Structures are given as C-alpha cells and as structure tokens.
Amino acid sequence: MARNSRWSSSPLRVLTYTLLVQLSLVDAQVAEIEKASNDSLLWGPYRPNLYFGVRPRIPKSLMGGLLWTKVEDHTVQHTFRHTCEQHELDGYGWDEYDVRTGGRQTIHDPANLVDITTEFIKFPGGQHGGSWGARIKGTPRADAPPNLKTTVIWYNTLEGLGHLQADGDAEETGAEGDVVLKGMTPELGDFEVRITEGKGDHPQLNHPSAQEKPLHRTLVASSHIPEEALWQSKQVLFAQLKTEIDQLGSKYGEENPPPPAQLYTIRHQPGQGNIHLIQKVFEGVFEFDILFSSGSAPKPITSEDLTIQINSVTSGFSTRFTEIFKPQPPFVKERYEEFSKSLFSNLIGGIGYFYGDSRVDRSDDPAYEEDNEGFWEDAAEARARNGAQLEGPSELFTSIPSRPFFPRGFLWDEGFHLLPVIDWDVDLILDIIKSWFNLMDDDGWIAREQILGAEARSKVPEQFQVQYPHYANPPTLFMVIISFLDKLDAVKADTSNEKVLAEKSYFMQLANREAALEYLRKLYPLLKRQYFWFRKTQAGDIKSYEREAFSTKEGYRWRGRTPQHILTSGLDDYPRAQPPHPGELHLDLISWVGMMTKSIRRIAVYLDETDDAAQFAKFEEAITKNIDDLHWSAKDKAYCDATIDDYEENKLVCHKGYISLFPFLTGLIDKDSPKLGAILDLIGDEEELWSEHGLRSLSKSNEFYHTEEDYWRGPIWMNMNYLAVQQLLNIAQQKGPHQAKAKQLYTDLRKNLVRTVYESWKETGFAWEQYNPETGKGQRTQHFTGWTSLVVKIMSMPDLEGGRTRDEL
Fold first, then answer.
1. Would residue 769 show up in a list of annotated catalytic residues for this protein?
2. Which ranges carry the Glycosyl hydrolase family 63 C-terminal domain (predicted)?
3. 87: pLDDT confidence band, cut at 50, 70 and 90?
4. I need a labelling partner for 796 at 20 to 30 A (CA). Which of 10, 12, 468, 775 fits?
C-alpha cells in the first residue's frame, strides 16, 4: 500500500497523468471542432453538375434537384433544364455564396425566355446538421410573351435506408396549398420537406383536359425505381410524361390535343416512394420555397424565416467579402468588386460531394514500367488487354473546375482552387484536403481524376475513365498546406488574434493551435507516403546515361507519356522531346518534387520530426543543384527538358514556355540567382511569352505555337500566371539585383490578367478555361470557375505603384 502511494505521487506518475489529461483535452477539442464543422457543412448545393441540386455529405441519403422549361410549344424535350451544359444559357452562377450559410444564384435562360433565381439558406440547430430552405423565382425575360407559361419540377430521391412519403390523396386532381414530404433516415433522423404553394398565376386553359388536372394545383408523382437509376431523374420524368402524353393523345386525338402546358404534366399519385416529382405550372412571374426541416431542430422553418435569413446572409457575405478580398488599386471601381464576388462565389459554389465506385487498372503490367524504347505502344496494348476493375465505393468532398464540363474532382486543380478559399475558410479547406488524402491507397497513390459513380462517368468518354496507379499528377495540395502554416505563424505572431476569434466558425483550427497541430500530425504520415510514392514511381534514369549531376538520384520522368501528350503532367499537349524516350527527364516534374520536398521539410520542422527534416533538407539541396546540372541550357539561357539522342548521350530539348519557368514558378530560384535575370527576360519578351493579356503557355517564336490541338501551345492559363505573379511579387518585395525589373513585370502582368478575365466575363457572363493571347477572348470550356478564380487573389494583391489608376481600368 505504501509503495503504491509513493508511485502515485512520484514525478513520473504525475508527468504521465498530466500528459494523458492534455492528450484527452486535445482529443476532445478536435472532436468538438470536427462536429461543429461537419454540422455547418452537412447540407449544400453539393450536386454542382446540376443547375440547382441539393444533398448532404452522406453517402446514400436524401437528394433534390430542379428542372424547368417553357411550355409554349412542343420543343420541351430540348429545353428542359437540369444538368449544366455548355452554350445553352446566357450566363448562370452564384452572385454571392458562402458554403456555411448559403447564397443566391441567377440563371439566364434565353431559349426558355425566363431568368431563374435560386436562393439557398442554412438554418443551424438540432442534432442532425440543421435545416435549410431554398427559394425559386422565375421572371420572364424582356422578349417573352406577357403570359409566358413555365413548368417547374422539384424532385427528391432517397438512397439507402429510410423512407420518404408524400402526403396527399391520389384520388384528387392535384394538391391544394403546400406539398409535404415526410421521411426518416438513420443519419438525418425524422424530417419533412415542404414545397410551398408559392406566388404566381397559373394558366386557365379552355380544354376538357384542364378539368382533370387543373393547373392551379400542384402535381405529385411518387414511385419506386431501382436505386442505381435515381440519378437519372430527368429520364424518369420523361418516361412519366410520355405515358401521360400517350393517354391524352388516345383520348383527344390529333383533332383536339391539349395545349402544351396541359399536355406536359405528370399524373398526380402521391404516396410512398424513393423518387417524388413535384410539378407546378405558372404563367408569368412565379416564386415558391422548398423548406427542409430537421425533426431535431427547435421548430420547422417557414417562408417568413427564409426571407429574414436571406437578407441576413446577403448582407453578411458582402461585408465579409470586402474585408477579405477587397480589390486593391487600380481595381477600385465597384464593378471589380461585383466581378470578384461572382468569381469567388462560383468557385466555392462549385464544391460538391461525390460518392461511388471508380474504374482502376491494378494489373501491374510490365509495360507500365515504360522503360523500353517504344514504351507508349506497349503500354497502349497493355491497357487494351487488361481492362479495369470497379473499386470502392469512395467519397470525396471537392471543388470542381467547371460545372458543365468537368463536374468531378481533379487532383492538381484542387490545390489551385483552395488557395483563394483558405483566406475565406481555413477549416473548409482542411476538410477538403483530408477528404483527398483519405482516397490514398497503401502505396501512396491518389487517382488524379476522381470519377466516382455512374453519374460522374456519364460525363466522361470511356477511354478516359480508367485510372492507373503508376500515374501521378502535380502535388498542388502541398502548396495549400504551406499556406496553412503561414497562417498559423501569423496567428502566433499576432497575440490579439482578433480576426480569428471573431470568425471562429471559419477558423477554428487557427484559433486552437493544439487542434491544428493534431490535424497536421494525423496528415503527416499520409504526406510522407505520397512523397515517397512520387519519388519511387516517377524516378528518372541518370546513371545509365552517364549524366553529370550533383546527385545520381534526383531526376524525374512523368509516366503516361505518348508522342502527343503527357496528360499526367497537366500540360497535356505541351511540346516535349520527340520521339519519347525512357531516358527523358522532365523539368516541370523535378520542380514539383522540389516544391513538395521544400514543403514537407517545413512540415517536419513544424512537428519536431528532426530526423525527417534533415533527410528532406538533403533531398532539397540535391534537387536544387540537379535542376541546374541537368536542365539549364547556357546556349538557350533557359531551363529545358532533357532526353537521350541517337548516340545515347544527354540532350536538352528547349521549348520555351511555361515549362522553362517551372523552377521559378515553384519557388526554387533564389532572388540573387544569376539565372533569374534570364528568366525575367523570357517572361517580359513580347516575342516569347509576354502578351498584353497574360503570359503565353508557349513562346510565340516556337515552331509549335498555335499548332494541332493548341491546348497548352500558346493560350493563357490563369493558374500558371498566378504562380508567376506570386513569385514576381516575392522578388519585387526583397532587395536584390532583380527587384526593379520584377516590380515592373508584376505590376503590368497583374493589370493585364485582371483586365483580360474581367473583359471576357463582362462580355460573355462567364469565366473561361483559357484566354487567347492575341485577342484576350475566353475560350474552350465556359463557366470554368476553378483556377481561373485565382484572379480574385491577384486583384487583392498589393499595388506597388502607389495607387495610380489607368483610364481603361
């Protein structure tokens, strides 16, 4: 007994107990932060492939979506809107949006002669992630007839366990007043969805069929269909419409057919089901609400609650946006703030939740080593021979590049997407990063394109659906983690922490340093695993060709190469050495690995992983020296790719463009480097990369400029230009031999980029995937609100000219 007493009061026992208590407190704090963040992020318009679609971050659960069309004629099969498509609208997107509170979207639909507004608002409270409301408004356009007839359909589907029932009587000719769906799932508990009667006139038609289904009533069709078909709601609707059309046709014949507004209606059959279609037909202006009330919330929400909260969210967004992203001179006019709000709102309005299986080829075919001459032909035969297996299901919370064309997760895009978002909501980006790293396999591979489920695959040609575990992608998420460390350092230096404490719902990880460090500790093993996977699978061959370099290990080569493309690099058709050779070394890849090494070393230092930090420091030194030894061309005064010539000797292949800038873009060139002058000369040369609209992807003087696909062979890309602006700003703010030149290039490039994106947005209503270096016009994919939204950060960067403005701005 005495010995136990001595042990219980011994210093070791006290220390152990203290550490356990501290760890327990940290765990509790982390759990509290995760719950609060998950609750505020549970619901959202997380189906960004639709013009308006709502779901929770739950694998199989309740989902909803909106469809509409004019019903003035018999063209509805072509004008029914549901999924985002290119070149069918005059513009659409979020004017204001915050992923934690909600926002407003406007949709300009010329073919249907109507403008649609969707407002989505969250209501916190309860045990199941709170409630939400959506308001749908329609306003006929100026060229529409005064009595424009529009049919609008809201639907809810339910996957997984639970039930969903529409109240009402199938014997009636439609529902008077509000339509109510009542349901329950294990994750959401009890809930109801109320689709209000709304405001607006309805067609009064002089046809016998109008007595059977008077259009001032709401029609509800409930049914059970196979779960795997629930995402095809538009096809389900069309099937139901066809059944009704056939019956009406046989009843009234071709001599007296019902008018379109009456003909294109569903049968009123409310009841149990896993899909419920709710149809309204309006004449002129209309408005109605969708109100989701959680059974665990204090009370059901009403339209009056929604009106109040819409006003609060709108004013709150504007105030906060101005504080965080206020455009700096010369972009001080009000139109630039509206433009900036739109781009940023559409960036985070493109955040989606995806769940499903994916196609992966894990055959480990020897051809995938790509180590023989002609390897691309062997690899193509292997891909055709091996096929793919379905893996998963997996889930991903991600910001997508483009709602109509790329509505899914892209690994290298994501890092660029999150660079503006981290200024707005740190906890959100940490959640997205965690979601990506949860996809990593045991080797350290994350598929570069996440095509999860049949709905996602429906947007991707079959030849691009399969993912390969030896394919890499630029590791841009490391850039975001470093930005997070910068913010942690800033908070530590600023003891007042007024901004962080005032907005804890966005910066909980910053407000609680221990929670932030715990997040990094959990992420760090995954970062290491991916880092060493990168080094192993993308290694280049230095020894076999007797290349002279500081290190015999630090050379890298993208796998997945063909004569026309290196899709894995992200710079698809950028000119490379011809023909491809297993001895190639790719400048952009060693630069990405250098950035990754520099980043993970800093993270290791942050977490007191001293042995790891020392190892990464050695790698970093070797990479930096090898970039000069293996890739610098004194003749061309540029960094270049390397290959092997006909005499089995090293040969530099210089296609000046973005590739040439990569050591600079990734922050591996010191401000005092003698090579920096040549890099700045290349950037500023109008016969090479410089244009009045931004930096060209390929030199104007290159033989391949604007040839073949012309994807990365001249057009201006905002992600690469952002990296250039960022690095120019770094050089311009430090004393050194190149400070003055960097300052001038930074100032002019910043103005050119903002003007280019703004003018195209003003003209077309869209941000674009890329911009023409001769005209500045947006081109390729429209509504590309992924990394093109980096212009928001560019606008908020400092003006180094002392606030001077130019008339054209």
1. yes
2. 302-797
3. confident
4. 775
The answer to whether residue 638 is domain-embedded is no
Q: How many domains in the chain?
A: 1
Options 85, 572, 636, 748, the catalytic residue: 572
Q: Got the DSSP string for 123-175?
A: E--SSSS-EEEEEEEEEE-TTS-TT-EEEEEEEEEE-SSSEEEE-S-TTSSSB
Residue 391: phi and psi, rounded to 5, are -120, 155
Nearest to residue 278, comparing CAs of 263, 294, 267? 267
Q: Model pTM?
A: 0.94
Rounded Cα distance between 435 and 33, Å, is: 16
Tell me if 25 is assigned to some domain: no
| Spatial separation of the C-alpha atoms in residues 153 and 176, rounded to whole Å | 16
Q: Which of the residues 72, 378, 641, 769 is marked catalytic?
A: 769
Cβ–Cβ contacts within 10 Å for residue 568, how many? 21
CATH code (residue 210): 2.70.98.110
Has 88 been annotated as catalytic?
Answer: no
Residue 709 included in any domain: no
Q: Name the E strands within 50-128.
A: 53-56, 62-70, 91-98, 102-109, 114-123
Which residues, including other chains, have CB under 8 Å from residue 35's CB and lie 6 or more apart? Answer: none
What is the distance, to the nearest Å, from the Cα of residue 197 to the centroid of all Cα atoms in its chain?
35
Residue 27 lies in a domain: no
∠ CA 132-138-142, nearest 5°, is 155
- Residue partners of 171: CB distance under 8 A and separation at least 6: none
Domain that holds residue 144: 39-325
- pLDDT tens sequence across 430-455: 999 999 999 999 999 999 999 999 99
Q: What DSSP letter does each residue of 238-288 carry, written as one string?
A: HHHHHHHHHHHHHHHTTTSPPPHHHHS----B-SB-SEEEEEEEEEEEEEE
